[in-house]
Amino acid sequence: MVRCPTCGSDHVTYLEKQRRFKCYAKHAKPQFSLKVGTIFEDSPIGLEKWLPALWLLTNCKNGISSYELARALGVTQKTAWFMLSRLRLALQDESSNRFTGEVEVDETYIGGRARFMHKAKKARVIPSSKTAGKVADMGLLERHSGDDRQHSRVKPPSW
């Protein structure tokens, strides 16, 4: 459920042409985007560039350079350097403490485009198991609620 970051109201609507949300409560800044309250907030770069950049950074065994990221995403080297510096700062673990309090865990299977296959080919290629040929992905979220002004933490499992 989408909530207004200013007042916390859930009475919001999506403005399709602006690709933003609008809160119906009367206050300053009634419009907001999905990037509010995240490391992506003050960036003109869209999430369609940020999320693959995060994936590349976390999955490259020996790290990734800004030149390599720029080539992969189709952005300038300066933009890629900015993205990497912001992502690396966000990925720094400030403490080695375990998660405490309310923790959410979610998993999904990624891969395969079975819906685009012909019925006969789908039956031949993909066995009855819906997870065959797909990669399992899981994430953890530690929530901080209330007025304690702490940030929630997301931690991918370390395999």
> Quick one: overall form?
globular
Helix content: 25-40%
Number of distinct helices: 4
Domain module tally: 3
Provide the residue-averaged pLDDT.
79
The total strand number stands at: 6
Provide the structure class.
Answer: alpha+beta
Give the H and E element order.
Answer: EEEHHHEHEE
Strand order of the main beta sheet, please? Answer: 1-2-3
Spatial extent as radius of gyration: 20 Å
Q: What is the distance, rounded to the nearest whole angstrom, between the alpha carbons of the first and last residues? A: 31 Å
**Biggest sheet architecture:** 3 strands, antiparallel
Query: Beta-strand percentage?
Result: 15-25%
- pLDDT below 50 for ≥5 consecutive residues: which ranges? none
Provide a descriptive summary of the structure in words.
The chain is α+β, with helices and mostly antiparallel strands and 159 residues long. It folds into 3 domains: 1-33, no CATH class; 41-91, Arc Repressor Mutant, subunit A, CATH 1.10.10; 103-155, no CATH class. The protein has helices spanning 47-59, 66-73, 77-91, 119-125, and strands spanning 12-15, 20-23, 31-32, 103-110, 135-142, 153-155. The protein has a 3-stranded antiparallel β-sheet, with no helix packed on it. A 3-stranded antiparallel β-sheet has the order 4-5-6, with no helix packed on it. Helix 1 crosses helix 3 and helix 2 (66-73) packs across helix 3. The radius of gyration is 20 Å and the shape is globular. The model has no long low-confidence stretch (mean pLDDT 79).
